[in-house]
Amino acid sequence: MTSETVLALIDRFKDNRERFVAFCRSLSAEELDRPVPGSDYRVKDFVSHLGTLDPVMAEQFERAARGQMEELGRGDDGSPFDVDKYNDAEVARRRDWNLDQMLEEAAANRAAFLGSLAKLEDEHIDKVIHFTGDNKRDPADVPFKLFLQGLTRHDPIHVADMVKALPERADDPDLKTWLN
User: Fold this and answer.
1) Cα-to-chain-centroid distance, residue 32
2) pTM of this prediction?
3) CB–CB of 112/55 below 8 Å?
4) For residues 73 and 56, what is the distance between their CA atoms, to the nearest angstrom?
5) Measured between alpha carbons, how far is 170 from 155 in angstroms, rounded to an integer?
6) Under a CB-based contact definition with an 8 Å cutoff, are residues 55 and 109 in contact?
């Protein structure tokens, strides 16, 4: 039986993704194409990014469910997984995709992600994992449960990034409530 904590995480992931998709569908082609200040991404690049990281995370959940608490995949040369390099390459490959293509891929990847997450029990998420770091955070050993709780905020965090290019949307009360 899946843990109550994991079920609550799944609900949070689903809710945030539903809000994210609704937000994305509300954007015009011009808004999707805007550059995001302080980033190399356009607004729509965050859509593809959120759709392409799920398979990597699902793989980690599958390994964790088998009792293999490993950090994200190492390169063939043994180098740590570089999430920023991975994200940038995946986004670049999808730069010419339209919103429907990106959201369709994201939906399929999210379904597999949630299926893999549902295999985790408390004994798995109570362990410590090694986070390899990214352009905003240093590598660290963190409780897996804490990592997952933070990951549930991934969609709204990147909507906040997207809103930097969409200042006219920043005062939307529903959006403000969600992002807070």
Assistant:
1) 18
2) 0.90
3) yes
4) 8
5) 16
6) yes
Nearest-angstrom CA–CA distance, 144 and 162: 27
Provide the residue type at 2 as one letter. Answer: T
Q: Which two tokens stand for residue 110?
A: 């999210």
Rounded Cα distance between 35 and 165, Å, is 6
Nearest to 68 by CA among 103, 119, 112, 33: 119
d(CA 73, CA 65): 16
H/E stretch holding 44: helix 43-52
Q: Could you give the CA distance from residue 59 to residue 54 in angstroms, rounded to a whole number? A: 9
**Two structure tokens written together for 115:** 């299926």
Whole-angstrom distance, CA of residue 118 vs CA of residue 134: 26
Query: Concatenated DSSP letters for 1-38?
Result: ---HHHHHHHHHHHHHHHHHHHHHHTS-HHHHTPBPTT
Best CA proximity match to 11, nearest among 142, 108, 2: 2
pLDDT, tens digit, 9 for 90 and up, residues 37-79: 999 999 999 999 998 989 988 988 898 888 876 655 555 566 7
- pLDDT > 70 in the chain, percent: 90
pLDDT exceeds cutoff 80 at 159: yes
| Angstrom distance (rounded) from CA 112 to CA 50 | 14
